Amino acid sequence: MKNFLKWLKEFTPFLGLSGLYFSFVILVVFLFNYYAPDSEALAQKINPFFLLVRWDSFHYLNIVSGDGGSLVFFPLYTWITRIFSLFFSPIFSGFLVSFLSLAVVLYFLSKLIKENYDKEISNRSLILLLLFPTAIFFSLIYTESLFLALIIAFFYYAQKKKWLLVAIIGFFACLTRNVGIFLWPVYLVYILIDSYRHLLKRKETWYSLLIPLGLLSYCFYCYLISGNFLAFISGQKGWSEWHTFLWPGATIARFFKYYLLVPIGETGLYNFLRIVVIEGGSFLLLLTTTIYWIIKKHWPYATFCLLNTLLFSCIYPMTSVNRYVVVIFPIFIFLAVATQKKDWLFYSLIAVFSLFLIFNIYLISMGAWIG
């Protein structure tokens, strides 16, 4: 009981911070959509939270409500939401899962960073994470907050060498997103760093098999339902019709050749900013972070970043990179360290991130696609 109360005391501030973040998002939604007495949202008495139920959120809610759903969407988020929906409405339950997951993200990220850095780096990392332009997805009925909570808990307990717990967390990460499988090689890197001797005789090596088991179990479920082990891939017809898998060099070359050599007037200023500046910039940020952790020889972070970099560099066009990088938390530690002695750069990043974040909240509330 005493340990629980101690943990609760540590966790409560992060619960409050998550609550403040959700309040900030709702405030921005309110200011953009209820700004005048004759505004449409005000006239129709629309709950501001409903303006944040967009795109994939509808699919998750359909699954939770039992109205069917695509196998494209991995099950853990909807399972947890369905448990909460026994007591609350599905929409409230979805937001509640994201809210609690974000608190877990902030709690474990703070503890993880303080293992190797000072409080300033920890605070800066949290601020940069929360203000990142696509951090809006943490407060939506999406898997971002839950997936990141599992990833950071994975890294935290890996540093503590609690191997069975780490493998179990990796198992659940694979039930949240297919790229959770990237945690398997990260796990193996951790145990190799711990000791490379008698690798096959060590129980922690065999624990690692729990991680791919998470993905394999969902593949088997897909087979039972649809007769296709990879239904979560083949089900993305709209996505696959306008994406191509290429070698990394070819993807990057084609990206810059098309978007940088074609006049802006032909692509349109908005498309240029969205694809080149935002998507391309997000990829370059991830690539730079990967190189940084390789130079620092922090092999678990480097492995995790490298695998994601290779994945994005094999998909043309590189769309939604700005959304997916928000869960690659070593990016924010790198930015915090890089700006530690450059306050002007740190505050400049905060200003730029905040402007794009507010703009993305506005776009989401209007039903626009942002990543």
Write up what this structure looks like:
By secondary structure, this protein is an all-alpha fold. It has 3 domains: 160 residues, no CATH class; 74 residues, no CATH class; 105 residues, no CATH class. It is 70% helix and 1% strand. It contains 20 helices and 2 strands. The chain has a two-stranded antiparallel ribbon with strand order 1-2. The longest helix has 32 residues. The N and C termini lie far apart (43 Å).
List the helices and strands and how they pair.
Layout: H1 2-33, H2 40-43, H3 56-65, H4 76-84, H5 90-114, H6 119-131, H7 144-159, H8 163-174, H9 183-194, H10 203-207, H11 210-226, H12 231-234, H13 237-241, E1 244-245, H14 248-261, H15 264-267, H16 269-295, H17 299-313, E2 315-316, H18 321-324, H19 330-338, H20 343-365
Antiparallel strand pairs: 1-2
